[in-house]
Amino acid sequence: MHLMASLGAKFKECEKELTWWRHTIRDRRRMKATYRVGVSPVVVYSMTKSGSMAVYRALQQRGDILALKAHALHPAAWRGRRSDPIYTPGVRAQLFDLTHSNRMVRFEIIDQSRPCRFIALVRDPIATNVSGFHYNLPSFAQDPRAFEKADEMPAARLAQLFLERYPHHLTLEWFDLEPKRILGIDVYASPFSWQQGWSTYRQGPNELLVLRSELPDEAKAQVIAEFLGLSSVRIGRVNTANEHGRGGWTNALKRELALHRTYINSMVDSQYSQHFWSPTERAAMRDKWIASGDTLECS
Known about the structure:
- It is a single chain.
- With about 300 residues, the protein is of the alpha/beta class.
- It has a single domain, classed as Rossmann fold, CATH 3.40.50.
- Helices cover about 55% and strands about 10% of the residues.
- It is built from 15 helices and 5 strands.
- The protein has a 5-stranded mixed beta sheet, sandwiched between helices.
- Helix 13 (about 260-270) packs antiparallel against helix 15.
């Protein structure tokens, strides 16, 4: 039984690999056609589990723009390459799902110095990390059947796995690891508009829009449409935890995390949080996690 399960998992990985290559070939052709007519593509370039999938899907469904998605454009983050001290195996596990898309954006856009518009979302860092742990539990638990066992696992054990094995620094350092190194854009060099919930940046041929994931979908759609020069954009919800049938144990984990004030404080008081949220907003963020128990949304 275990052998069959293992073979089935390998088959699914191979099938996913082939699908990625088909999409890569398709998107490369579309990219060349896009540049030929003088239009730059848009890359949803964001930390994993930041709410970027809904934005990407909204743009991908349009026929008048080429939308791509990337989490990591630094080669050290890609699976199969030697890691630098920052991109540990745990970090690469978080970024592997878009390896081919990452490479195409890097090789076909960044390395060619082609103009491009990028969109990044920022999300409550604890929610981002819990969501990443939620979707990659088998990797961090080192058990391929972890999802089946999770509801029976003590909350204290889930919290231990999360606190000890998850790469928490990735969310806090992503803008320095990626846009700063790849695009030459340092988002921390200028204030972020807390009132608007979004800001734009430009460096050379690249434009970057950074917006909060908690903005209402209508507000995000309006900002993105204006940034891209589109008449309108429609954004829907995707990837909620309960829709995937894995919400129960995650809520137990969140309740357990309320006991770990040092961790909560380290996330809420980080440079990342202080830059993108006002003191009042961060106080509310802290209170939410100390009181936690709301339904997790993952994307």
